[in-house]
Structures are given as structure tokens and as C-alpha cells.
Amino acid sequence: MAISECPECTYHIPLPPNIAVGDIINCPDCGALLKLVSDFPPVFEAVKEE
Ligand SMILES: [Zn+2]
N or C: which terminus of the chain has fewer CB atoms within 10 Å of its end residue's CB? Predict the structure, then answer.
């Protein structure tokens, strides 16, 4: 399973098996909203809420 790092807290997040670029998840550690912006390598970008 691929692992990526939370840009907010550096927690190592295991990627869900069916995640795709553009999907948004919550960091399981800090709760930040993260959008997958690349899948190879997997990179998350924090989503800032208005
Ligand atoms: Zn986090």
C-alpha cells in the first residue's frame, strides 16, 4: 500500500486503495482536509476552507 505524508502534520497516511487524483480525504491524525494532487509519487496538498 502506498503511503503519503500529511503536509500539515507530517503524519504518514496510508492511501485508500481506490483513491484518485483530485480526491479529498481527512488526515487521520490532525483532521486536515487533503487533496491528492499526484499519484506517482502520491502527494497531498492541504485544502483551505473559506
Ligand atoms: Zn495531518
Answer: C
**Distance in Å, CA 13 to ligand 1 centroid:** 8
User: What CATH number should be reported for the domain holding residue 13?
Assistant: 2.20.28.160
The amino acid at residue 47 is: V
pTM of the model: 0.87
C-alpha 29 to ligand 1 mean position (Å): 5
What is the CA(6)–ligand 1 centre distance, in A? 5
Number of domains in the chain: 1
37's torsion region: left (phi>0), alpha (psi -120 to 50) or beta?
alpha
How confident is the model over 13-23, as pLDDT tens digits?
Answer: 999 899 999 99
